[in-house]
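Sequence in, structure out. Go.
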Amino acid sequence: MSFASSSARTIRARTIPVATATALSVSIYAVYTTWQNPLLAEDLTQETVASISKSKSKFALPSTVSPYTPLGWGNNRNLTLSADPSGTVKKPAPLTFIGATPLRDLVVAERYGACIDARGDCWMWGTGYDPSGQMGRSLKGKVSDDHLTNCARADKSQKLKELAPGPAKLIALSRDGKLYAISSSKALQAKRNDRNEQSWWSYIFGTNPGVDYYELKAQGGLKRGEKWTGVSVGTNHLLAVTSTGRSFSLPLSPLANTHRQLGTRQEFTPMPRDIPAESDPRFATELTEIPSLTGIQIAQVATSDRSSFVRTFNGRVLGFGANEVGQIGLGSHAAVEIVQVPVEIVLAKGYPGGTTLNCTDIKAGGTTTFFTVERSASGKEGSFIDLLACGSGITGSLGNGLWSSANGTPSRVKT
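Output:
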């Protein structure tokens, strides 16, 4: 008995240091890999790995680059593509500083970039975020007061899934249908004004978002079970749509409604604050339902510089706001510079009679607008997908082979 007891003590004495050393090694490895790859990747299934292996990419990436590493090219004066300020990235190059993880979303504005990792956290970079251009974690998953009854479920549902960038503000849509606004500046994010707005219960038990933020809400509140499902940001205004098809707008600066791009007649006088309105997430915090679209079921909203668009569930499109170069797409004879109320855009003008078009997507930016449409003709089987463009084409952005300064009729991109 004494020999067995002595042997057991010896084994335990040797096991404890070994177990401790192993745990320490695993901890160091975990810290090292997390530091090396801060963006968290989800577990990959065998089917996902197989599909990646079978996919044929047009770009021959180096063997050291993960298939999840994004590619980027273009102007790099604000360090949005690389920490090297040497100038333009002339061809698609891996953005290795982002890492090698699947991303929920990635956006690049003029002065900053942002992405959402698989954990649902937002990361930002570029001189508009940090003058050094270095990447850093921004808004993290959080728990709002009305979700604290089930913290585990709330923490999971509060993860971010979609980003909409403005010039100096970033809007984030969470998986459970909430909208959050943060400044694009790391310095302003560090000023935690949100702590003064939290209840003590939320402050103690809620998840720390890591930066200053503000949750945007509808004027008068949303209906029971209703939530935000889509958002788009222009230069100075925001459009959002809910799960019931209601459309809302929000000013992001005093210039938000210069061309009636909000769909309302609101005018704004800036409040005296120490933060510029363009960077202040609290400049306006309540979205207003667009009166002329009440009762119309909207599936998608889109914004460009000073113009706005909405798409219905049956594929019809309406536009309003600035139209000085035909970016609304009302036709070559509609030479009105400001469309003050939502007007339907007839996309079939460039097609022969009997052609049916169903718009499936809208993308807009600057003074150019793109419509993805599904086309079918009476008496013919099958359907086709076309890309239509209107607005400014002075740099060739219309894709119609012409360098036109204005095109008010949505025309097909030739190739």
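Check: Residues 1-33 form one domain. Confidence is low (pLDDT under 50) at residues 1-37, 41-46, 48-59, 143-157.
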